[in-house]
């Protein structure tokens, strides 16, 4: 029974408690006392719509205090002590006291109590690392960038100059606008607007900031605006405080930058107080609708808070907010959850319009009035409805200078900064004369070379000082032609780092920046690139290329192998084995001819019986015949006589004819024609695809060729090899090829073919690959891009480009040499002359041997003749004695004695030389005829 009564009492107490709604305190820090009643009325109105039986809102309000400390104490003692669920804070009435909401945000944020700003528009409150629990029903000043961006699109202004103060507000506006521009550019790339014609692409691509200029209190505004005046853009966006804006307007008026052709877009701060009195006519300004209507913002903020509390009570268990600041360091556990509910809430029917918050807690879909400053008064000419600009066609805009027609937004500067690079034959760089001018030279066709002064680093002087130099070549002639056609002047400078341009990481971070000519163009140091700049996709994403002025590809440069003639050059047509076989064949045939003619019964014959028989073919004659047939020297004697030998001789003559003809045909190829070692066949050559340290090839660092190999996955092996050997410039690489330090250099075909035509020890090899073209580079927003392309197309049509090609690229010094008829030199035929000299020396040596042999033979023959004469005389005397004749005639006897004496003396000499045994003599020196040896001879 007792338990039943206890349960009844508990249920009654719970029912009684449920009938009484929970009191939820809402705090407010208001700018003036009169808004306290507005706050209470808004709370009472919210109680009628939200909560009802579950909760009841209670309004607790204070006004702004004189300083931040008093304000923080008031928040703790008057609001947090009352356990408020949220605090509304308005902007203080004094514009100079713009940091007053900060102590409210800091104090409430420490306990994670949500703070809802009412009229505070400073961008610093969007930083959630500082203001943890801050939301607001107004957008920050930087949100005006959305309206500026849409206005630029509405009027098709694609060239803008952004001038911002060097403070948090200026940097926030700059960041917001640049983000919008980048997002637009990214979307356009995905939509492939590049396929449209140039005008359509410009309109759809949207605007882009040509220059961002920051200034501070110490900045010389006149110098700053002079820099802006030099730019082509004429649309100026200003984000500054009231005082700074007034100073900018004064300086702009002094420089005549507020007249016809200019457009000034500003925000709300730049058209208030002192700034409005200095503002130029025709200025376009923005004003937030209900931006300063504190009553309306109080009503909308209370409604949003009440709506969020109701949602929170329905879904979550809510803990009590902290009570006071003294001794309390605990955060409100439900605070972060309540903030998320507030940020996700939507209140479509607010007095200030549709109330929603973004991720930073700032108001979305804010509405602006677009105002035009006409005759010292602001006239509404349109609105921004939160998503787009809607102009009022009934009210005409009066632009600066009193113009009624929309300004074009840019002015084409007639003084262009041209950047180029030393790359022969497109750009030659030579020092100036002592008086600073360029000397006059004539081209090979007799035309005077046009030269321009170009400042840049001098590579020949240590430290590479920036000095004036003379530039001329293909690209310089093209620049002069474009300047005459499009009526602009120019100043030329050489790129500082000597590079064409590629992206590189900054301090090993993920951020990449362009270097070389690309970096100077994108950085505003140049208006146009006039150089052999290769058109590729990576560069085309950032800059605008003209139509190609020169079509080309990549090729490979190697050193030409010049054959060296040796003394045995005339023997090169046949291998040594073949020479050996030919020589052996000569002697074998000679022997066979001798044998056939020797053993043939018809090897000797006589015409009739009275004539003597002819001698058969001797071995010497056969040898002479064999060599004579082979060398085609003519045969005077010693021909074979037999039919069998003559058949062999005919076959040998045919063999000799074939051998001699083959030798003669190959001799020309070996002595005259080049036979270099096998060259590179192209990009797919095994020596390139399978790199090794024995064959080194490279290109230029951070060039389009380097980018090409880096991007191609199938060429990654080649790129890793090249990366270690790449050169700083093409000239260095070409010289390395000539010095045999580099085996192959991969570069633009137009340049390499020119170098090969000028330096006869170089040659290009393989087919072209990665075909592309050279184009003139400009920024995406350049007003010259379409005119430059049209001028280049016209130059192609009228033959001007063809003339430039003939003058600078196609002239070849080596052509006359390579196409001239091949002639033999002494080096080619030196071996033949040495062979003749050897023959002469051999002949002289053999003639001495022959003379000595002849003398020896003649002496012996004379001795034998004397011996036979003596024998004949002796024989006759002997016959006379036997026949009984008288003594011989004394004259004959004396003759015989003389012969005997001469023969005896000769025999003595021979005996003394111990060469031969001669017949003995008697004591008187006469021939001893009784000696057996003498009788034997007789």
TrEMBL record:
Q: Respond yes or no to whether keyword Repressor is given for this record.
A: no
Matching entries from SUPFAM superfamilies are given as: Periplasmic binding protein-like I, Periplasmic binding protein-like II, Voltage-gated potassium channels
Question: Topology in the membrane?
Answer: Multi-pass membrane protein
Q: Which residues cross the membrane?
A: 578-596, 651-673, 829-853
Please name the InterPro entries in this protein's record. ANF_lig-bd_rcpt, Glu/Gly-bd, Iono_Glu_rcpt_met, Ionotropic_Glu_rcpt, Iontro_rcpt_C, NMDA1-like_ligand-bd, NMDA1-like_N, Peripla_BP_I
Q: Where does the entry annotate site (Interaction with the cone snail toxin Con-ikot-ikot)?
A: 710
List this protein's GO terms for biological process. Answer: calcium ion transmembrane transport
Main subcellular location of this protein, as a coarse class: membrane
Which reaction is the catalytic activity of this chain? K(+)(in) = K(+)(out); Ca(2+)(in) = Ca(2+)(out); Na(+)(in) = Na(+)(out)
| Feature type site, description Crucial to convey clamshell closure to channel opening | 680
Assigned GO CC terms: NMDA selective glutamate receptor complex; postsynaptic density membrane
Q: Which Pfam families match?
A: ANF_receptor, Lig_chan, Lig_chan-Glu_bd
Q: Sorted alphabetically, which CDD domains does this protein's record hold?
A: PBP1_iGluR_NMDA_NR1, PBP2_iGluR_NMDA_Nr1
Q: Which portions of the chain have biased composition (kind: Polar residues)? A: 915-938
Instruction: Quote the record's binding site residues for L-glutamate.
Output: 532, 534, 539, 704, 748
Q: Where is this region: Disordered?
A: 902-938
Q: Which residues form the Ionotropic glutamate receptor C-terminal domain?
A: 451-811
Q: Report the record's disulfide bonds.
A: 760-814
Its annotated compartments are:
Cell membrane; Postsynaptic cell membrane; Postsynaptic density membrane
Question: One MF term from GO for this chain?
Answer: metal ion binding
The Ionotropic glutamate receptor L-glutamate and glycine-binding domain covers 457-523
Which of UniProt's keywords are assigned here?
Answer: Calcium, Cell membrane, Disulfide bond, Glycoprotein, Ion channel, Ion transport, Ligand-gated ion channel, Magnesium, Membrane, Metal-binding, Postsynaptic cell membrane, Receptor, Signal, Synapse, Transmembrane, Transmembrane helix, Transport, Zinc
The family note in this entry says: Belongs to the glutamate-gated ion channel (TC 1.A.10.1) family. NR1/GRIN1 subfamily.
Q: What does this protein do?
A: Receptor for glutamate that functions as a ligand-gated ion channel in the central nervous system and plays an important role in excitatory synaptic transmission. L-glutamate acts as an excitatory neurotransmitter at many synapses in the central nervous system.
PANTHER family xrefs: IONOTROPIC GLUTAMATE RECEPTOR (PTHR18966)
* The name this protein goes by in its record: Glutamate receptor
Organism of derivation: Xiphophorus maculatus (Southern platyfish)
Q: What is the lineage of its organism?
A: Eukaryota, Metazoa, Chordata, Craniata, Vertebrata
């Amino acid at each position: 029974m007792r338990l039943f009564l206890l349960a009844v009492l508990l249920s009654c107490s719970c029912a009684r408690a449920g009938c009484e709604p929970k009191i939820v305190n809402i705090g407010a820090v208001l700018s003036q006392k009169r808004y306290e009643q507005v706050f209470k009325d808004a709370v009472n109105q919210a109680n009628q719509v939200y909560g009802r039986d579950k909760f009841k809102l209670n309004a607790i309000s204070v006004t702004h205090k004189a300083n931040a400390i008093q304000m923080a104490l008031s928040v703790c003692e008057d609001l947090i002590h009352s356990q408020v669920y949220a605090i509304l804070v308005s902007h203080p009435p004094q514009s100079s006291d713009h940091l007053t909401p900060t102590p409210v945000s800091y104090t409430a944020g420490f306990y994670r109590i949500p703070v809802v700003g009412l009229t505070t528009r400073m961008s610093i409150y969007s930083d959630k690392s500082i203001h943890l629990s801050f939301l607001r029903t107004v957008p920050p000043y930087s949100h005006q960038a959305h309206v500026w961006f849409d206005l630029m699109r509405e009027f098709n202004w694609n060239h803008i100059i952004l001038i911002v103060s060097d403070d948090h507000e200026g940097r926030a506006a700059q960041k917001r606008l640049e983000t919008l521009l980048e997002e637009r550019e990214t979307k356009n790339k995905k939509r492939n607007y590049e396929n449209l014609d140039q005008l359509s692409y410009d309109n759809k691509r949207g605007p882009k900031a040509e220059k961002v200029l920051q200034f501070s209190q110490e900045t010389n505004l006149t110098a700053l605006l002079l820099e802006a005046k030099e730019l082509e853009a004429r649309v100026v966006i200003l984000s500054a405080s009231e005082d700074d804006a007034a100073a900018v307007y004064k300086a702009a008026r002094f420089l005549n930058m507020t007249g016809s052709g200019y457009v000034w877009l500003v925000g709300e701060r730049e058209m208030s107080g002192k700034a409005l009195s200095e503002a130029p006519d025709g200025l376009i300004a923005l004003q937030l609708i209900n931006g300063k209507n504190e009553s309306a913002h109080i009503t909308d903020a209370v409604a949003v808070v009440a709506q969020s509390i109701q949602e929170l009570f329905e879904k979550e268990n809510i803990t009590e907010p902290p009570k006071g600041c003294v001794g309390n360091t605990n955060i409100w556990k439900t605070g972060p959850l309540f903030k998320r509910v507030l940020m996700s809430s939507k209140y479509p029917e607010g007095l200030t319009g549709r109330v929603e918050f973004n991720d930073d807690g700032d108001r979305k879909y804010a509405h602006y009035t677009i105002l035009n400053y006409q005759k010292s008064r602001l006239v509404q000419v349109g609105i921004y409805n939160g998503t787009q600009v809607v102009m009022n066609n009934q009210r005409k805009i009066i632009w600066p200078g009193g113009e009624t027609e929309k300004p074009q937004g840019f002015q084409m500067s007639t003084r262009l900064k041209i950047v180029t690079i030393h790359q022969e034959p497109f750009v030659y760089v030579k020092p100036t004369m002592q008086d600073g001018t360029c000397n006059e030279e004539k081209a090979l066709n007799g035309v005077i070379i046009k030269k321009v002064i170009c400042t840049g680093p001098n590579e020949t002087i240590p430290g590479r000082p920036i000095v004036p130099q003379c530039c001329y070549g293909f690209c310089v002639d093209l620049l002069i032609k474009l300047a005459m056609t499009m009526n602009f002047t120019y100043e030329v400078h050489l790129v500082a780092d000597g590079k064409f341009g590629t992206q590189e990481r900054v301090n090993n971070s993920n951020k990449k920046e362009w270097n070389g000519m690309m970096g100077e163009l994108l950085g505003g140091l140049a208006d146009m690139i006039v150089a052999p700049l290769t058109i590729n996709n990576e560069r085309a994403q950032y800059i605008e290329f003209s139509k190609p002025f020169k079509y080309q590809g990549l090729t490979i440069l190697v050193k030409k192998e010049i054959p060296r003639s040796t003394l045995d050059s005339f023997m090169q047509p046949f291998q040594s084995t073949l020479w050996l076989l030919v020589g052996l064949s000569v002697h074998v045939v000679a022997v066979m001819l001798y044998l056939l003619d020797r053993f043939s019964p018809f090897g000797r014959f006589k015409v009739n019986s009275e004539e003597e028989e002819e001698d058969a073919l001797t071995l010497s004659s056969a040898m002479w015949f064999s060599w004579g047939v082979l060398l085609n020297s003519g045969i005077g004697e010693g021909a074979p006589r037999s039919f069998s030998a003559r058949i062999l001789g005919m076959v040998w003559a045919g063999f000799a004819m074939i051998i001699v003809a083959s030798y003669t045909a190959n001799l020309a190829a070996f002595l005259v024609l080049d036979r270099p070692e096998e060259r590179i066949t192209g990009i797919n050559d095994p020596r390139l695809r399978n790199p090794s340290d024995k064959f080194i090839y490279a290109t230029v660092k951070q060039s389009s060729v380097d980018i090409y190999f880096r991007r191609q996955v199938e060429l990654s092996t080649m790129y890793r090899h090249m990366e270690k050997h790449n050169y700083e410039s093409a000239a260095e690489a070409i010289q390395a090829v000539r010095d045999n330090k580099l085996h192959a250099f991969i570069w633009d075909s137009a340049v390499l073919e020119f170098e090969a035509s000028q330096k006869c020890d170089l040659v290009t090899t393989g087919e072209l690959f990665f075909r592309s073209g050279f184009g003139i580079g400009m920024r995406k927003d350049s007003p010259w891009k379409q005119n430059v392309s049209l001028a280049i197309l016209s130059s192609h049509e009228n033959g001007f480009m063809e003339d430039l090609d003939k003058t600078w690229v196609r002239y070849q010094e080596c052509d006359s040499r390579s196409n001239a008829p091949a002639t033999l030199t002494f080096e080619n035929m030196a071996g033949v002359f040495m062979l003749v000299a050897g023959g002469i020396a051999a002949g002289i040596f053999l003639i001495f041997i022959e003379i000595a042999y002849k003398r020896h033979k003649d002496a012996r023959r004379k001795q034998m003749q004397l011996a036979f004469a003596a024998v004949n005389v002796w024989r006759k005397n002997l016959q006379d004695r036997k026949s009984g004749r008288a003594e011989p005639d004394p004259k004959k006897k004396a003759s015989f004695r003389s012969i005997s004496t001469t023969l005896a003396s000769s025999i003595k000499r021979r005996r003394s030389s111990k060469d031969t045994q001669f017949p003995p003599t008697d004591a008187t020196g006469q021939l001893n005829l009784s000696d057996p040896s003498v009788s034997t001879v007789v």
